[in-house]
């Protein structure tokens, strides 16, 4: 790993961004030159490579974030060397810049799901841009399963001519934790509201747990997988054209009476009213030797993309093998036949997410 | 996928080779130009791209295999375009050519374990060659777990600074099948010899089952993983320098009285003499709520690389999640903490092996 240098600009320097920069700066004989940082309040463009003092340098900058100016600054470097922009935000506004950057020959690497699971028109512009001979590359491994090899595996499968029969998985670390704790196959156990409360206290849920229980995070990941299949498969599938993640058939876990509760505290306070309902689901599943799991399914054969609570036998890997806040993804394909290819492990966290991003960046070398 | 063309030479056109060529020729708007084929008896070098008629063209060739001449022919193309050689053999002689090819700027892609698990000096020459500025690349994803993302995942982990605590897995499809059938956690079941006999009849073992039961295939895969860790880690480990796979602590399953049985038939005929021994192992494991699995372990912390029969609780993924002739690989790492990253699925077979090879080839685009 020597040769040609690669300029790197980082947008978003929170938990994942800081970890990414730390991992990046720790690479020995690295070809990467970190030249630009952008936070929510400041930006910095440096003619020399930034080092471990980047935080204080950014704090000392008086420049406000300006993505248009950043585009110009980076575009000017493309003729000289490879340029990569890493978006560690979850911002829709940053995502909307990808086509501009990619068209200019800047590669985009990101764990931000917005561009790949939002408006189909934005996604189409991105694919058109990377297919142009002078376009940059786009890598988004960390949008699904963080550092787990999910997107790369899917691209390898369909890009070499395998046919996806079904992808089925637990895609949300939060949902994984909640149901691994709540539904173990026994007829009783902790109350649903108690599990959600504890998950929130441990920092596993968003501040407002409804932002997890609505299933939108899973729907976004399924949209990314479905679009990846449609874009990279060698043969046509029956998958629907998803206008956005909102088109995924998603069975929210938010009780309808709690749909518009403004705060997380209030939501948690009222959730026990619905414990009996969840308890009944668990009891019924248990009577059939099953557990409850919040899963996502992408089925290109039958044209189905759906997220929701489903039941699995207690002998199924979703019951036996899962723990903590693990993700698990099963790829049922033509070549893998009766037994799926399975990827499992932590699907969230700054270190493993940053690793997924850095792994993508290394593909540019 | 358009732009620059990539010349491809294929050595080895058996099951995996034929499947690889079929998958390669099925790629739409492919940059690859298949220009050379070599079997055990013939070779063909074509000035135009070979197509689906390759078998008859090769059969019509009167040229004998000549790897030295092939080197010259391919080297002459390097200045013009990228050149890849795909070795689908399991030949040591072909493996010994890798340094020559790589130094000439030819990339090598292969499921052949020999070069990466044999003499350390050959491996060192390969690594030196790919590190030279004009050297080709080497990709060997399919040497471990066929099409499963094992090598790429390991490189991503250690290449981004993660530290491997332990890799533990069932790396042999044959051993997986044998013990999934033989040891299910119950105290009884089919005789060991009956399971091996059936596995052989199904074509899951080598013609001589001792070639599986000696554990060498697993030892070779562990050598590849250990060397990958040592070569690509950002920090030092305590792993031993393996002179070859023979340095792996391997507990063969061949009863010592059967160590030099010349034929598979004779071996199968005498194996029942040792059923009582295997039965006792199974019974003892079962009494402790455990199953038997033939596993491989690479432990960079304690400097251990070993293959052999080990016991796992019936609740462990090696007991609950495995089936058929699946491979399963657990990566315990610093970043993945208490719960490992797991990859599971078919680890052998022409279609998935060829897919692993073609996935590697696509990295050259």
TrEMBL record, chains A, B:
Active site per database record: 221 (proton donor)
Binding site for NADP(+): 12-17
Pathway the protein takes part in: Amino-acid biosynthesis; L-methionine biosynthesis via de novo pathway; L-homoserine from L-aspartate: step 3/3; Amino-acid biosynthesis; L-threonine biosynthesis; L-threonine from L-aspartate: step 3/5
Membrane-crossing segments per the record: 6-27
InterPro entries registered for this protein in UniProt: Asp/hSer_DH_NAD-bd, Bifunc_Aspkin/hSer_DH, HDH_cat, HDH_short, NAD(P)-bd_dom_sf
Function, in words: Catalyzes the conversion of L-aspartate-beta-semialdehyde (L-Asa) to L-homoserine (L-Hse), the third step in the biosynthesis of amino acids that derive from aspartate (the aspartate family of amino acids), including methioinine and threonine, the latter of which is a precursor to isoleucine; production of homoserine leads to a branch-point in the pathway as it can either be O-phosphorylated for processing to threonine, or O-acylated for processing to methionine.
This protein's name: Homoserine dehydrogenase
